[in-house]
Amino acid sequence: MNSIEEVIIQTLREYGINAVRDEINTGVWVDKKKIAAVGVSCSRYITTHGFALNIDPDLTFFDTSMIIPCGIEGRGVTSIANVLKESGRDEDVPLLDDVADVVAEKFEKVFNVNIFIGRCLS
Q: S-S: 19 plus which of 12, 52, 70, 95, CB 3.0-4.6 Å?
């Protein structure tokens, strides 16, 4: 889990975002807001790991009056777009494919593997 969090932290660094781990809660955080969730699933003797990195979703339902994100009181959620907009860099919000390329690069580095991402051209 720490290695997946590290992939995300290094990815966010590429966009000038200072993200960290939390000592208690999994995921990746910017200040007291979660920017990426990390999880694990076990089923029929197979374990899978994954993450969700908020790039530019509609976060209006996560205002903590309706939803308590991950059941963690006193914390909120954010996204790459929100962090960049708050710092006056809203023109720098990356596209999903661009973030995916950076994630793949950082994944290769952290896990010391080579991966190939194929994309369909339409």
A: 12
